[in-house]
Each structure stands twice: as C-alpha cells, then as structure tokens.
C-alpha cells in the first residue's frame, strides 16, 4: 500500500446509494478459522448486514457434512455456505459477488463490474501465493523471501487504485 493510504476500516469499492434493505436472515457456515469465509464475513460487516456465524470443527467430518448434504445446504459438499432466507449459496467468490451485487458494491455499469471482478480475481491469486507459505513445511526458511517480495506483489493494486483515487471503483 502506498504511503498515506490505508485499507483498514475502509471500503475500496464505493457502494451505490439507495440499496434495498436486507430483510432475509443470513447464516454463514464454516470451520472455526478465518479461511475462505473471512472475506464473506468482512463483506457482511462492511455492509452492516446482521448474520449468524456458525463455526464448527471435527463435527464437520463426523456428521455435519452428511447432514448438510442431506438437507440440501451444500451443493458440492463444501463450505463456506451462506444461507439467505431459504436459499443456500456456495463457492466463496460466488458468495462474495452475490453480496456485492446485493449491497450495490459491484459497480454501476459493466465496465465497473468487470473491474471489480478483475480485482477480486487478482486478490485471490495474490492470496494463493501467500497461502503456499502458510501451509509450507519450510515456513521459516521461506518467510524472508515472501516478506521481501510483498511490496512488489502489491504494485498492480497500487497502479489500479491510481494516485488520487480512494476507491478501485466508484466516486
């Protein structure tokens, strides 16, 4: 991140005005870790959407996975799953895109929507690079390389944000 810019507590996509209110009950189901559900949680929090955060551990393998499959909660037998009323949404990036559309943070036109999708996919690629470090058997050996390369790996996002923009998309 450039000097003088901080993404902490700051939305980088400006939502559209006059969005519909969220009246459905939202239930997020995932393991008791941040993982793939964390961006979903952050999106819900940023949008001010109340939700139930159901976290679990070993019971997933023991019984919950089969129970969710039998109840039609999971489509691919995976989590995270975001239940919105009686609908069960799966695949983390599809859930994030759904929420962005629902709260008006997906851009006002097709060009903005493309830019949002491109940035989301770029962030996913960036995260996967660092996930390799987190799950590496040689974490301590690999860490200095990653620390050294983090600033350079964020330069594309800096370029996309531009010199004076507060948001990747929107005004």
Question: How would you describe what is shown here?
Answer:
The structure is a single chain. The relative contact order is 0.16. This protein has five helices and four strands. The chain is α+β, with helices and mostly antiparallel strands. α1 (38-47) packs parallel to α3 (92-103) and α4 (110-134) runs antiparallel to α5. The longest helix has 25 residues, at 110-134. The two termini are 20 Å apart. It has helices at 38-47, 59-70, 92-103, 110-134, 139-161; strands at 26-31, 52-56, 81-84, 87-90.
Quote the beta fraction.
5-15%
**Termini Cα gap:** 20 Å
Largest sheet, strands/sense/barrel: 4 strands, mixed
Number of beta strands: 4
Number of contiguous helices: 5
Morphology: flat
Radius of gyration: 18 Å
Helix and strand run: EHEHEEHHH
SSE-based structural type: alpha+beta
Descriptive keywords:
single chain; 171 residues; four-stranded mixed β-sheet
